[in-house]
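Researcher: Please translate sequence to structure tokens.
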Amino acid sequence: SQFGDYILDNELGIQMNEQGELYLESNLGPEKKYKLTKQLEGRKYSAENNRDKCLAQLEKTKTLMQSIETELADD
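Model: Translation complete:
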């Protein structure tokens, strides 16, 4: 099942309570901990990458809007 961007993976010990909060099983073995860490590192990298792309796009958009405003003011 999915909750936002988080894919709940019972195999890896991620659970969700009735309030929709994610939590980890308390007795994760070393193998589950390793898999989960690797998966979360991948998601973190992906999210940071997307954030950087969005921020770059935002800056381009702001610059474009400023140049349009300047041109309109010159008319």
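Researcher: Any highlights?
Model: The chain has one domain: 2-74.
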